[in-house]
Amino acid sequence: MSPERRIEGLALKVGPLGEHDRLLTLLSDDVGLIRLAVPGARKPRSSLAAAVPLTTLELQVGGRSGLLRVRQLRVQHNFGNVGQRLETLAAAQALSELSISLVAGDDPVPGMLSAVLMHLERLELLARRQRESERESCEGERVDRTLATLVQACVHLLALGGYGLPLQTCCRSGAALSPPIGNWDWRCSLLADEGLAIGAQAGAAIQINPSELALLQRLTRLELPERQDGGLMGPRPVWLRLFTLVECWCRVHLPRPVRSFAMVREAVASA
Description:
The chain is α+β, with helices and mostly antiparallel strands. It has 2 domains: about 1-80, CATH 2.40.50.140; about 80-270, Recombination protein O, C-terminal domain (de novo design (two linked rop proteins)). The protein has helices at about 85-100, 110-130, 135-160, 210-220, 235-255, 260-270; strands at about 1-15, 20-30, 30-40, 55-65, 70-80, 190, 195-200, 205-210. The strands form 2 sheets. The protein has a 5-stranded mixed β-barrel. A hairpin with a 4-residue loop joins β4 and β5. α1 packs antiparallel against α6, α2 (about 110-130) runs antiparallel to α3 (about 135-160) and α3 packs parallel to α5 (about 235-255). The longest helix has 25 residues, at about 135-160.
């Protein structure tokens, strides 16, 4: 029997395995994406029942070969609060799916886990604030911030995973993408197979104006873009356009679809 080992990470997905077990998909700094059997986790009163999605875990694992088995686990943090709101839950699920698409087994992506956790923490905070708020105006603003948080998270994770949006150079001419703010006739086109191109290009998946491009370029920073009064920069229609752009890019370039994107769009529309 191979020696037992300790693994820490974020549970991205949990599904049934056999009659009483669970199959856990874990994102880890050490081993990348790993799938583990959690024996007996579906039994009542199981000590391993805490292996649920969106939970950071410290695991003791072992096994002869193939699928490793969880022997012991300790919950470090449960992001269950994101489930208080449909839009934050959908955004968190989209982050999980995106991470699974970007990280291969046994091939860790430096910074991926910490980036996912940072954005989950932001979604958790938004869910808590939305639950506590009774005012429609506050709730609408926080829904917008949830959408913006997801768009920024996608920009960050895609860059870390090697599928980053090329935000600085025109894919056709090689010229710098310098949005001329105030020139409302100027356009930038997403050519999903290639990148962003200056002008209204034939066959573009979506076109954005200078302000939208400038906002998209700012998403590479750590914090969301805000106005001087602390409000989120950009109205909901703009964030929906940027979300559509990210969706198109992911659909063409990633090895598997992020199905939760549709759930995000429905949740925002119904908010």
